[in-house]
Amino acid sequence: MIQTLEADSVILEFGNKRILQDVYVKCETNSITGLLGRNGAGKSCLMNIIYGTLKPYNGTISINKEVLLRKYRKPADLMILPQFNFIPKSLTLKRIFQDFKLDFMTFVNEFPEFEKYYNTKIGILSGGEIRIVEIYLIISSDTKFCLLDEPFSHIMPLHIDRIKKLMKKESGRKGILVTDHLYEHIIDICNNIYLIKEGTTHHIKNLEDIELLGYAKIT
């Protein structure tokens, strides 16, 4: 059964400045949906509105047409990878994987270089290594939808390729909404793309639309 996450008629204002205007985005299970836009376009704001940590001036967020009225989102429905690190640095990887109910050795099969860190506090790892762990946790968790805010930034190309393979694999059982300024990866991996320009979303039907909207030149 295909399940649907929708953000509809979203308006966001900060003071007298309107950031988002009647935004619409749909993400379905068994697919990866991309969100493009220049810095400051409102991509992260939209992610936070969908997740419930930012209240819009207007608009609804719904799953399967059922509006999410509470600020709190159930992890079984929705999880988010924010741009900042969210795991307490004092926790070991063993504890973290237990808390997320994920098998550490399955993670090691994808990222074998992490096997030696099983009993290590995550704060000891490099920034890029921490990010890989956090990305894996959100993508692999048992949830209907996951939101990924800048997952490819500050990650080595080899690891980006592994993450993209993991996203494709996991999209078989959940919906993924992803945004990143490294737009080539969004174009490569996504089945469906929206672009935010001047506060409004544009549904990208072909790559020429990205050029026509002045976002990037696609070669």
Report the average pLDDT across residues.
Answer: 95
Largest sheet: 6 strands, mixed
Q: Tell me the overall shape.
A: globular
SSE pattern, N- to C-terminal: EEEHEEEHHHEHEHEEH
* Number of DSSP E strands: 10
Low-confidence stretches: none
**Strands in their spatial order, largest beta sheet:** 6-7-8-3-9-10
Task: Explain what you see.
The chain is an alpha/beta fold. 29% of the residues lie in helices and 29% in strands. The protein has helices at residues 43-51, 93-99, 104-110, 127-140, 157-170, 183-189, 207-212; strands at residues 4-14, 17-28, 31-37, 58-63, 66-67, 78-81, 145-149, 175-179, 192-197, 200-204. The strands form 2 sheets. The chain has a 6-stranded mixed sheet, with helices on both faces. It has a 4-stranded antiparallel sheet with strand order 2-1-4-5, with helices on one face. The model has no long low-confidence stretch (mean pLDDT 95).
Summarize it:
With 219 residues, this protein is of the alpha/beta class. The chain contains 7 helices and 10 strands.
Please supply descriptive tags for the structure shown above:
219 residues; alpha/beta; 10 strands; 7 helices; four-stranded antiparallel β-sheet; six-stranded mixed β-sheet
What is the strand and helix layout of this fold?
Layout: E1 4-14, E2 17-28, E3 31-37, H1 43-51, E4 58-63, E5 66-67, E6 78-81, H2 93-99, H3 104-110, H4 127-140, E7 145-149, H5 157-170, E8 175-179, H6 183-189, E9 192-197, E10 200-204, H7 207-212
Parallel strand pairs: 3-8, 3-9, 6-7, 7-8
Antiparallel strand pairs: 1-2, 1-4, 4-5, 9-10
Helix pairs in contact: 4-5
